[in-house]
Specification:
The protein has a single domain, classed as Four Helix Bundle (Hemerythrin (Met), subunit A), CATH 1.20.120. The protein contains eight helices and no strands. It is an all-alpha fold. The N and C termini lie far apart (50 Å).
């Protein structure tokens, strides 16, 4: 498959799955009774996860096409974007491990507020978004940048829908957590990170 064909295939795959997923997430945000996300099981969760995976696969295909087109001549991009991507993916995995498998898939196994979750209510989404932007630096095509930004938008819709679910599950405890910890990252995150680094 040529890089051009790979890129167009990735754009089509990510475009179709991303539009449908975003529409369903937005609809659930405005009409909670749809209960599309988060869904503890059944066809809703399966559909949401498969649409998300297809979007990510399309993004990777687009990025790979960019790398194949550029070859080794683009090594400065790779040297900048690849370490950002690797570090962000490691942080994302660490955050999901801290959250636990049950909570990751919408179990109510306790509200996690320490560690990375003291810096952000959604550290896995933040780290994965940064990883996608690192991938866009590596690929350096308009399509890779657009799909990476689109992924950040999908993560935002995930987080907004999950907040309502968490409020129902944990009530005041989650409301207090919302007040003291940013949804993604802000100055409080950086201050707490600096405090933790200073103590170490």
């Amino acid at each position: 498959m040529s890089p051009v064909t790979l890129e167009y295939t990735g754009i089509a795959m990510a475009g179709a799955s991303g539009l449908l997923l975003s529409a369903l997430l937005a609809a659930t945000l405005f009409r909670p009774r749809l209960a599309f996300w988060p869904a503890p099981g059944g066809w809703r969760r399966a559909l949401g996860l498969w649409l998300f995976r297809l979007y990510c696969l399309g993004l990777v295909a687009v990025a790979l096409a960019g790398v194949l087109s550029s070859g080794l001549a683009a090594w400065p991009r790779y040297a900048l974007g690849a370490p950002v991507m690797a570090l962000a993916l490691a942080l994302s995995v660490a955050s999901y491990r801290q959250l636990g498998r049950g909570n990751t898939y919408f179990g109510a196994q306790g509200l996690v507020t320490g560690g990375l979750y003291a810096l952000s209510r959604n550290p896995g989404y933040v780290a994965s978004g940064v990883a996608a932007l690192g991938l866009a630096v590596v690929a350096w095509t308009w399509a890779a940048w657009a799909l990476s930004v689109g992924l950040v938008g999908i993560y935002t819709l995930f987080a907004l829908n999950e907040e309502r679910w968490l409020l129902r599950r944990y009530g005041r405890a989650f409301r207090d957590y919302m007040r003291r910890t940013p949804r993604f990252v802000d100055g409080r995150s950086l201050a707490r990170l600096a405090e933790g680094t200073g103590r170490a």
